[in-house]
Design brief:
Elements: H1 2-12, H2 19-26, H3 28-87, H4 91-99, H5 109-122
Helix pairs in contact: 1-2
């Protein structure tokens, strides 16, 4: 653009220009228009790029929150199962299941023993002092 402006100034001062320089001066307005268009296009692409980055960050945050919620749900389920299994290690709960009393279903001793062993294997001992 600076070169074209120089040609234009030299032409106004009456200097002789060669054919290529004259053609370049004739296309000055077109070149300026194309440069402005390119600048606007660059601004548009830059804006779109920023919007895309924002959308990606938002999607990543959403995905992280979903993963966190899924982990919480898994942990909640594990803790609930552990709580139920730990109850099988208590004498009065075992009596209720052996006799089918107090709302408990009847479980044969063999099945109850499996549950008690499974509870001991999967549920860590709690230290009540902590």
């Amino acid at each position: 653009q600076l070169k074209l402006e120089d040609y234009k100034d030299r032409l106004k001062k009456g200097e002789a220009l060669n054919q290529d320089q004259l053609e370049a001066v004739e296309k000055y307005d077109e070149v300026v228009h194309n440069l402005e268009f390119a600048k606007e296009l660059q601004k548009t692409f830059s804006g779109l790029s920023q919007d895309l980055l924002k959308a990606q960050r938002k999607a990543q945050r959403r995905e992280s929150l979903l993963k966190l919620e899924a982990e919480k749900k898994k942990l909640r389920t594990i803790l609930q199962v552990q709580y139920v299994l730990q109850n099988f290690t208590q004498e009065h709960v075992q009596k209720d299941f052996k006799g089918g009393m107090n709302g408990a279903i009847y479980l044969p001793s063999k099945e109850l023993d499996y549950l008690i062993r499974f509870a001991k294997l999967t549920c860590p001992e709690r230290n009540e002092n902590l």
